[in-house]
Specification:
By secondary structure, the protein is α+β, with helices and mostly antiparallel strands. 54% of the residues lie in helices and 14% in strands. The N and C termini lie far apart (73 Å).
Length: 287
Amino acid sequence: MSKFHRVAKQPLLQWHDAIAGIITDGVNDDAVDNLMDTLRRIVDADGCSLIVYPEGSQPFCPFRKRRKGEDPRIHIDQYLERAYLLDPFYRLAVDGPAEGVYCLSDVAPDAFKQSEFYRVYYRLVNFGDEVCLIIPAENASIQISVSRQKDKPKFTIAQQELIARIYSTVRAILLKWWTSSKADNKENFLDSHLECALSNFGSSVLTQRETQILQLVLRGYAVKYIAQKLEISPETIKHHRKNIYSKLDINSQAEMFHLFIDSLRMVTPDSPPDPLTNYLKPPSQQD
């Protein structure tokens, strides 16, 4: 057997060993943890995170494999707190039915590097490439992010195809794990109104069309894409954006994002759909 053949076969040997362990010991937290580490190693990734997005509840990250020296407060805490709302992979799963393996280049908007998500999160974690496995589950979306830092080459076509080939196995294991985990931890899921807040942000002071445009701008889409999606001219988009800035008393997309983040601090289970409703109240009228 040639050296090349041994090297080429090694990732699948590692994978089969991991699956054999799961068959022997059953699907549990240790098995999923080992599955994540094996997935990271077989494609030479720097990080591998499993994030669960329960319907109506805050997302959580039960498993994460990462390089030494990474700051979890940036890589996980900041993402789970609010940044995830603008993540293109999360938006793909929430805004429409999505299942399978997706590359960053498949889902990121044209102006991704000018988006607030890139500025406040992606740039800080220094990701250069990312592949996401999206698994719809009962009352949740399960996603595995496999990432590489900027100092490494992007995932090869062969590595992407390898992830696609093992997707069905990963899906079966995680759906079994989720069914068991949900039964054990049902009471631990905290109610969250963040998705509702994002969908309705600005609706109490903006027109319906302005609110639509605001949502797309927040999610990082360029004027050209927004115009195509809404079937109106780029000049009309710019006119609406000018009105949005005026009504919200802001001057830039960065200020828009910070206004959204600040308004989230006022969100409670009893809050109106638009977080600005409570945020703009005079202090004397706030609870």
